[in-house]
Design goal:
The chain has 230 residues and is of the alpha+beta class. It has five helices and eleven strands, in the order E-E-E-E-E-E-E-H-E-E-E-H-H-H-H-E. Helix 3 runs antiparallel to helix 4 and helix 4 packs across helix 5.
Length: 230
Amino acid sequence: MRTLYVVPVLAIAAGVLSAAPATGALGGVEVTRSTARFDSVTGKLAAVEVALTNTSGKTVTAWSYDVEGTYADGSVTRSTATVDDISALLAPETRSRALAPGTSRTSGGTTLPLGKAGDLPTKVEATLTMVVFDDDLAAGDAQSIGRFGGLRRHIAAIMSALLDQVQEAIGAPDPRGALKALIEKYPGQGMYLQLLPMYDHGPAALEMVLSADRAYRDLMLQHSELKPVN
């Protein structure tokens, strides 16, 4: 299924051009390295990757971090990223990518502007601000944790509404036409993109896609009541 980045993700070109070591840990999860590279989409931004190591003893399902970039002229810029990887818990084949105890993960999802001379920052530091575990305990600021739980509930509600519309379309006199109308009405809704191909493959194929979406929605909802820990 999907990893949810709350900020846009840019593809990253080869070659690390600036890097910084660890800047601390939160809840047993540590930033071990942060790097900046020219992004491969526009070349006009510094795409940041942050390496995390989990020594907490529990699987991490989401995390947030602040990024600070320092440039050759002494100027500083900041950015933030939140990554929700709750979908890694959906099935055995996706659990291999989870940030499980004793494993490391490289996280993208945030960018910094280039310097005035079009240069990358000479120093990049990432600081974890929130870590969410698979038992729904979370380390970090209590308000941020509450907002993140609310975001999961909000996404689950949106998915429920979309799934209801799909079921209504399937029950229409012309199901294919109704599904096509949904796609045209919501052209940016990625959840609808597979509907027509799966419908053309038959009821079983369509139900497989819808079942996966229902499972993802239910998982988001089940892990939305988060409890802050010190």
